[in-house]
Amino acid sequence: KQDVPMCFMLYAVRFILVFITLFSFSLHSLEVLNLGDNHIETVPAELGSLSNLVSINLACNRIRSLPRTMIRLRKLRSLSLHNNRLATLPPELVSIKHEELSLRNNP
Question: Distance between CA atoms of 30 and 40, rounded to whole angstroms?
């Protein structure tokens, strides 16, 4: 893996991403991940290893489910998942103390 030193924010909005391949890089210092408004269908389990994330925006995609590994994200305070295709969430993910959790416009 390539190391990306001190990368705190990663924005890839409206890139029409279909899948996430960001995990060929070491992004352990990442705090903000914004992949909103793409065509992402699957969230890789590796997302749960980015333990410094405090904000994730995956809104306006085509996501049907989230990996259970996301429950490891104990620093997560903001999670935007609106306008996807989510029918359920891992129950442990909902129990994390979020300051913001956006789920509107999902089945």
Answer: 20
